[in-house]
Specification:
heterodimer; A: 363 residues; alpha/beta; Rossmann fold; globular; B: 370 residues; mainly alpha; two-stranded antiparallel sheet; 4 strands
Amino acid sequence: MAKKLLLKSLVVLAVLTLVAAGCGNDDGDDEVVAAFVYVGPPGDAGWTWAHDQGRQFAEEQTGATTLFVESVPEVAEDFRAVVVDFIENEGADIIFATSFGYMDPMEELAGEYPDVVFEHASGYKMNDTNFGNYFGRMYQPRYLSGMAAGAITEANRIGYVAAFPIPEVLRGINAFTLGAQRVNPDVEVHVTWTFTWFDPAVEGDSAAALIEAGADVIAMHQDSTAPGLAAEAAGARWVSYNSDMSEFAPDAFITAPVWNWGPYYARIIEAVASDSYTPGAYWGGMDDGIVALAPLAADVPADVAAEIDEVAAQLTDGSWDVFTGEIRDQDGNAVVAEGETMEDGAMLGMGFFVEGVVGSATG
Amino acid sequence: MIRPVLARREKVIPGTQAVAFVVGIAVALVLGVVLLSTSGHSPAEVYERMFDSAFMGSDSLARTLERATPLALTGLAVAVAGSMGLWNIGAEGQMMAGATIAAGVAMVADGLSGPLLIAVMMVCGVAGGMVLMLGPALARSHLGVSEIITTLMLVYVAIRVVEWLETGPWKDPDSFGFAVIEPVPEQASLPGLFGRANIGTLIALGLLIVFWLAVSRTAWGYELRLAGSSPNTARYAGISLRRKILTALLLSGGIAGLAGAVQLTGSATRLESGLSNGYGFAGIIVAALALMRPSGVAVAAVVFGAVQVGGQSIQTLGVSSAISDILQAMILFGALVAAVFFNYRIRWTGPAGQLPGDEPEEADLAVEGA
């Protein structure tokens, strides 16, 4: 009896193993497997959450299998290990890496695995065959969110909790400030550097300190909700980032510039599935829907809300862009002449603060 | 009141350390079955992947060695200080300091040939770690300031310095404004062994052997251990505690600094604020697993490296990083607890207090002359 049972279990085990092995070898033939490497947890409600929403959207849209690993440190040995496992054990055809620090090891891996497509968010490296990069013109909805914040602030002092003094963040602060100045020329934007993308304690403390110093609106380039919680607790207002975070601080929330990665992910997966992928340096804006503005709070004045809609329409149809002159830097020097619009190259390397920002552009 | 105290076993049975490792890990793996089953994973599949990714095939083995190398060096750094009863909690920062000086010298000396440049960078790495350790070491040896706090605090100083260099003076002009430091010169890459393993592993192994011999087989090592375990005896024997503290801490900092240089010329392509990647802090666990003996560090580092590789790999199977972290922690904790119980025993002390022969063996280090 016992022997029979053992034999039966062994047969079942053997069959299961064969089935499992079969599954493992099958993929890659007809179905695309897209694997995502996240720098944080999808539960952050911020940066990684937005990418994970995009992954889920793309999976529904294309029927591809998607996989992800969260909280992967931005060092070669960690990133490589995850990607090699994805490719060799899970049959991944596309790797999406969603943080800047993965760039160097991704470049190496793209050379080692020519049959796999590598797409890197927020970086600047690429090749001609299987390695591209992608990002969005977040400065556009940031400008719009600045308009809303400029209308709401009564102290004319907005606090901005910012991660690192790099062009992406400087561009966002400048766009936000220009937007706020459009509706409120007296506004000042005070910047605090945290030197972290995701550290709720530091971000919350920075926001609280800015409020203590007189700011009544907090904006942020951070990945947690902590600045919003600090604003809510202090009775101040808040412009979140990455996603609509209104549920975390319903009274403080004004609006948010948000990411919408899904359509891009779906497009790349479909291109790979149909063998029509070519790498590029994608930098889409509101015209492509990869960035957008979350709904406005009810107390944003109707005329400002209408103006935001108008500007959003211009940004979407391309008739106007944010960094159109005249724009002066902190020292009063004209950096963009009247009527001229900044080139992409200059925007990507932005290293200054516009007039009205209080803080150091070099950290 | 009767209370339990841990007392070191008078006779440690040879080989118990290895047995402790195996028993501890086995217990943790059994508990892990519950964890994995309740979170909806097949324990057999997960464990198989863990083992395969760390040990099966040369690429896997190389991956484990790639991680074990910085762990062995930081573990050795902590153990060298630990063999004298000192705690270097700041190996993470010394690693960064070593990598920073090594990266700096590579910028000005990028005309040197590969082997020479690498050698210079290694020496600078050691120097960088020592420089960061100099303050805490002097404060400990001359003023009696706890090195635990000072070494830890300097970790954040070292990381902040790299962040400042990244966004300021060392920003790569070819990076389109991105805050990155220029890559180390091509010729400064450590030669590979197989897969991702490089000769950094051999450097670590060589150093482990040197320190194992020095600590356990030389008069210098004997004095070091004596100064740690019974400072009064050492002082009576004419050993300068001050000098011993300085030497042990500076060596410890230097080894951690070397780990930074090895990492910079090995796995990394450039100096980054994330380069130390927690290896310095993990080195404390490695040294604890090795019971502060350089001889045990190699094994502990490989085990730790394998657990990290396996823990990373099972996440591509769909195991969440939280479950993976818990599993890794359980395995290491199991090994650690087992090691403690194999080397110590519980003794119950009575209300009368300690008996004359009962003084704790790890007496506090008194500062000479203070």
